[in-house]
Amino acid sequence: MAKYIKEETLFDIIEIDNIKYLKTIASNIDSYVLCDTCKIATILSKHKNASVRYALVHWGSSSAVTSKILKALSKDKDFDIAKEAKKTLEWR
Length: 92
Prior knowledge:
The chain is mainly alpha-helical. The protein has 6 helices and no strands.
């Protein structure tokens, strides 16, 4: 069902700033075929909540989570996020 959400609807959901929703979006970033997932990943990678950033980097094998995003997250102040981003960069 999620794959049919329009981009503007997804941005409206992101603006609500519900952490549970944002983590779900981050964890399923490749499912949104009607959206610019790189743009969404970039927005989520800068979110103030570490659990949102972690959900995104944890699924770093996603093509939406670019090397540029991973490099930025590899310097994250949260150790687990930085570690996961570095691990994914090495794997790529």
